[in-house]
Amino acid sequence: MRVFRSIPLLVALFHLPAFAHEGMWLPTLLKSIEGDLQSAGLKLSAEDIYSINRSSLKDAIVLFGGGCTAEVIGRDGLILTNHHCGFSAITDHSTVENDRLKNGFWAANKGEELRNPGLSATFIIRMEDVSDRILPQLDPAMSEAARRDVVASLSEPIVKEATEGTHYRAVVRPFNYGNSYYLIVSETFRDVRLVGAPPSAIGKFGGDTDNWMWPRHNADMSLFRIYAGPDNKPADPSDANVPFSPRHVLPMSLEGPVEGEYAMIFGFPGNTQRYLTSYAVSYVLEKADPMRVEMRTASLEVIDAAMRSSDRTRLQYADKQAGISNAWKKWIGEMRGLKELNTLARKREQEQAFLARATSAGRSDLLTVLPELEKAYAEYIPYATARDLFVEMAYYGPEVLRFADGFQGLVLEHAQLSAQGKLQAERDQRLAAADAYFQNYDVEVDKRVFKALMPIYRKHVPAALAPAFLKELDTRYKGNVNAWVDALYAKSAFTDAARLKKAFAKPKASSYAKLAKDPLFQVSRSIFTNFLQEVRPQHTVLSERIEGAMRRYVKGQMDLEPGRTFWPDANSTLRLSYGKVEGSSPRDGVAYKPFTTLDGVMEKYIPGDVEFDVPQRLIDLYRAKDYGRYGVNGTLPVCFTSSLHTTGGNSGSPVLNGRGELIGLNFDRSWESTMSDIQFDPEKCRNICVDVRYILFLIDKYAGATHLLDEMILAPAPAPMPLIELPLHR
Ligand code: ARG
Ligand code: ASP
User: What percent of the residues of the chain are helix, what percent strand, and what percent coil, each to the nearest 5?
Assistant: First the structure.
């Protein structure tokens, strides 16, 4: 792709030392920054990291499920990822009688490893810049929809060529707002089994209190194994499958992370927005984040209080609470970080500078793009607001809204379903799902969440896009939210398991007609149809207009600033970031050291606490200082920070030293880093990792799963470790 090839990256990097750590690099472009990587401390070549001709580090990097990273650390296809990435697999294998989440789980042998239907592990076989086969066929005047069609038809033969006669999959994906296109060829394994996980009191030690924070003291790790058919190729889950024989295994560094030394992370970061305009940053900072935080603060207040008051509610809401609070806490950090960095003012300055450069370069074609974006955002913001509010209400608010929506087909289309002979099956399936739903549902909590959110929702929802149910609230209840919500819940069949069963007991048309008039069913319909009909279509049109203008704006910057380093925003494709093992001084008077130890775990220990309890066995090992070869200076390393640019999706990614050995497992960022999706700051931004020695200690000393060590490569410090060559199975 021309844009990237024409950029003198090396020169740019040397001229802009402040940005030395920013960026998530495409593996195919590493050759162009090889010199810089090596002067930063990399002992390998770019080809050792990414090669299409022989095994390389990329052959150990796995896209785990939909949104996490994992890496190969054992010769029999053993992979390592986060505890929070394996969380749903671990909970799926847990019951009250056999609570593997709470107690931890370690398969004693391969026969005990546990299957996980639907879980997949994907390797990248190769990536290739195919911009030259796409861009010349695209007319800048095309609509976004027409452009999408042309790209799709041009991609078809490219994908076919790449996969013909193989079991690989391929896609052509846009990068950098469609300024370039890459072919990505991958191999997906479908039999991935659970091998081990520490007790949640170790894997999630510190819970939400410690989430997004440094200093940190948890081993956010779990182990899985990839199984393949006897030919070592992907196969459906089956007893006939055998452990996958990998193309590369990451050595585990017994030396661990060393302060000040080179570090890099290789994984699948999900989404960054490095090139946003001031109009967009202003929306995020001044509208979207405050509004969403306000909504979630209100619902968390209700949920946290309920969880504190009863053990039953605590267990019922633990997962939901974690889902709501993770982004809530991140947004609070993001707002603070953007303010501290003055991002909005900086963006405005950059936009002025862009106009000045375009003018002096005689690029009058670029003078209209920012005004266009400003206008598009002015139109877009009400739709974005309505959409964000819809997501908060329907997906993170009172659960009954989405629950009732699940019955929509059954209630409204019962006649068609009946004619097709599908009514009974659909009804049974819905009611079975309802049983599971009510297990973790507390109607009083839900009602209080609804009451707490409504005033905030009302305050922010743009009048022209407000759903119809608000009118009813005003006319029949004179705007009295509490009375209205009480009435809705009291009469609805969807807030009570017994009432719901009764309502569906007789499969008569009149019962369905009655359900269609159920007050909460109608509110749910109102909020969903409002979104689908009034909000989404125009939101899509405007997002596409913005996308097209952003394409020109970013390309314009590249043309006008040939000396500047550009990297395409993260988009869940394989990327490498580099920096070093280091602490930070995120604000005046605060200095973070880069390492934590088991002593810190014991400092935080609160016996019997949901978040800060410590398993007895770990306490015993601590008291005996029985750390084996993993201890250092009388203690055990637990977590560390490094200055690597990461984002959501990097969870579970390996952090490697200059020799390509695993020194840590990435799982989070510090609170002062969470604005890095929009603006990275090399002084403040740190990713948080589990120290490799804590991982090995837990497997070896804590769990006694020494058979797992036998398939690993333990790299003694500090002799250089050559990349091992394993047979290629293509
Ligand atoms: N903050 C981490 C990341 O965004 C998730 C950590 C999961 N742990 C937790 N206590 N919620 O995904
Ligand atoms: N915890 C995040 C993840 O799950 C990582 C991050 O946002 O830094 O991917």
Answer: 50, 15, 35
Pocket of ligand 2 (CB under 6 A): 646-651, 667-669
The stretches of 440-506 forming alpha helices (DSSP H) are 443-460, 469-477, 481-491, 497-503
Question: Please, what is the Cα angle at 541 between 537 and 543, to 5 degrees?
Answer: 110
**Quick one: tokens of 686?**
């740190």
Distances (CA, A) of 281 to 70, 409, 678, 686: 32, 39, 8, 22
Phi, psi of 231 (to 5 degrees): -90, 10
Q: In 3-state terms, what secondary structure has residue 264?
A: strand
- Flag residues of the chain having pLDDT under 50: 1-19, 728-730
Chain segment 556-583, per-residue pLDDT in tens: 999 999 988 899 999 999 999 999 999 9
Show the tokens assigned to 595: 């390492």
Alpha helices of 122-221 — where are they, by DSSP H? 131-134, 144-163, 200-203, 207-210
Give 584's contacts (C-beta < 8 A, 6+ positions apart).
Answer: 591, 592, 641, 643, 670, 672, 683, 684, 685, 686
Q: Is 526 a catalytic residue?
A: no
Instruction: Classify the C-alpha dihedral 681-683-684-686 as positive or negative.
Output: positive
CA dihedral sign, ordered 299, 303, 305, 306: positive
Tokens of 91: 């909970």
- Catalytic pick among 191, 208, 220, 691: 220
208 ligand 1 Cβ < 6 A = yes
Contact 672, 684 (CB under 8 A): yes
Q: Is 460 a catalytic residue?
A: no
Please give the distance, rounded to the nearest whole angstrom, from the Cα atom of residue 156 to the centre of ligand 1.
38
Catalytic residue among 282, 643, 651, 676: 651
Q: In angstroms, rounded to a whole number, what is the distance separating the alpha carbons of residues 354 and 346?
A: 12
pLDDT at 726: 56
Q: Quick check: is 139 catalytic? A: no
Query: What stretch of H or E contains 86?
Result: helix 83-92
Answer positive or negative: Cα dihedral of 694, 696, 700, 705. positive
Q: How far apart are CA 80 and CA 218, in angstroms?
A: 15
Give the Å distance between the CA of 326 and the centre of ligand 2.
10
For residue 651 and ligand 1, the question of a CB distance below 6 A is answered with yes
- Over the range 482-491, which residues count as b (16 or more CB within 10 Å of their CB) and which as e? eebbeebbee
Express each pLDDT in 595-611 by its tens digit: 999 999 999 999 999 89
Q: pTM of the full predicted structure?
A: 0.92
User: In sequence order, which residues have a C-beta less than 8 Å from that of residue 474 and are 6 or more positions away?
Assistant: none
Beta carbon of 326 within 6 Å of any ligand 1 atom: yes
What per-residue confidence (pLDDT) applies to 322? 86
Q: Which pLDDT does position 7 carry in this prediction?
A: 36
Give, as one character, the DSSP assignment of residue 568.
P
591 φ, ψ (degrees, to nearest 5): -130, 125
d(CA 588, CA 598): 28
Which amino acid residue places its CA nearest to atom 2 of ligand 2? 648
Distance between CA 394 and CA 383 in Å, rounded? 16
Residue 155's SS3 state is: helix
d(CA 581, CA 594): 7
Identified catalytic residue from 84, 217, 460, 645 = 84
